[in-house]
Amino acid sequence: MSFIDIDVAEGQTMQALWVPAETAEPKKAPAIVLVQEIFGINDALQLKAKQWASQGYNVLCPDLFWRFEPGVTLDPTIPEEFEKGVDFMQKMQTADTLADLEATRAKLAELIGHDRIAAVGYCMGGRLVVEMAGEVNIKCAVSFYGVSLESVLPALPADAAVSFLHIAELDSYVPEDVRQIIIKEVERRDGWGYELYENCDHAFARPNGAHFVADAAAKAEQLSIAFMQKHLAS
């Protein structure tokens, strides 16, 4: 695990966490652009990166808050740091962020020598990977409890990359009426899928988080792997 530089806008660089696949020949393994929550590349996200690498995926996770505070890591249990993450998220410009994510995908393809690349994201990242599905040259996307998807999904082109959504039943950011909009959008798209996790709240897959549910997180991981294996086979 190490941090590498990615060339981005206007001759600047953005750091990204690079975790090669734990396989005999990592460059032959599929890959993931891992997209953060609002807390930067903190301990929980680094652990998720290692977990995906242990499952045989090359992982590259960009520091999407680099324009505001490069290298920032935030603790969701500290109110001031939580609010700082929200503030950074609200300051982000979609076009700039998607350009950063495409630069990450391109760097990942360069590192491994092929384009069998998915995007996996959590919370804010769960929204961004679905936006990537419509704008960035990924094979598929996996969204964990993405926010604001009810406004993102209807605007996606018909040929957006196939995506799988993990939805928490008790997620206050996605109340029942909003959830139904999201589900209907998923169901009308060929090859897309979703799973609803009963009695689970937002961030149920965040390691050591307040809402972590081990069984649900494990199920979500297995469903994600099956989905990615199907779409990253060639």
Automatic annotation (TrEMBL):
This is Carboxymethylenebutenolidase. Keywords: Hydrolase. It comes from Oligella ureolytica. Residues 23-231 form the Dienelactone hydrolase domain. GO terms for molecular function: carboxymethylenebutenolidase activity. InterPro entries: AB_hydrolase_fold, Dienelactn_hydro, Dienelactone_hydrolase-like. It is an enzyme of class 3 (hydrolase). Its EC number is 3.1.1.45. The lineage of its organism: Bacteria, Pseudomonadati, Pseudomonadota, Betaproteobacteria, Burkholderiales. Coiled coil: none annotated. It comes from the Bacteria.
